[in-house]
Amino acid sequence: MTEGFFKVQDLLENYKTAVYEKDVEKFLSMYAPEMHIYDCWGNWESKGISWEESVVEWFNGLSEDGILLKVVFNDLVVEENSYLAFVHCAVRFAAHQEESGEKLRQMTNRFTYCLKKVNESWVIAHEHSSLPINMETGKGIFNLK
């Protein structure tokens, strides 16, 4: 782990910064090696650090398209004790053109995180992202918020 996340908010700020900077190492530093992810993109489920390939692909795609991705956590709820934290929120991802700063698009996902404390630092042990589904079309609804 490259840095300590002594408060849950430290980890969330790192998430936003790592995505904006497209920094794979910084992004992965938030996850426990044995983490378990249910994702609404690409892989249905990922276990362990094998998820790195997906993160590299995501960040490379953003770089190739000249996009900076700004992350905002909305409706954030954090429940924690000494060793475990439960977080749920709506996460808005807004794509901006790197050169002009023009906002191109945005979407909002629902996220739930289970964090655990390892060596006094919070890490993500489980992550679940989802979108509500339009029952008539079967397609995800990306911007309810």
From TrEMBL:
Q: What SUPFAM superfamilies does this protein map onto?
A: NTF2-like
Pfam families from the UniProt entry: SnoaL_3
Residue intervals of the SnoaL-like domain? 8-133
Q: Quote the protein name from its UniProt record.
A: Nuclear transport factor 2 family protein
